Amino acid sequence: MINHAFLYNSDGVMEDLNNLVDNLPSGVFLNVARDINDDGWIVVGSDSRNHAFLLTPVPSGGAVVPLPSAFILLGSGLVRLVIYKRRKQ
Questions:
Q1: For residue range 3-29, what is the model confidence (pLDDT) as tens digits?
Q2: Whole-number mean pLDDT of the chain?
Q3: In a domain, 23, yes or no
């Protein structure tokens, strides 16, 4: 009998974590979910290598939410570019 690490999605359907994780190392099979926190981070175990892994969710579509500091950096760069162009004229 093979055990699978799984979770229940928002529809109450059981999903195998091995099918939801990208880029698992070769030969690794997740067979037990140990814990999940309020942010959706999941600690899983693997008998195939006797390791534990921390799975962190990625927003749907794989898009990473930009940090406010990234907007500040982009905005300051655009302001400097406008000032540079105006001084050149």
A1: 788 888 788 888 888 888 877 777 777
A2: 77
A3: yes
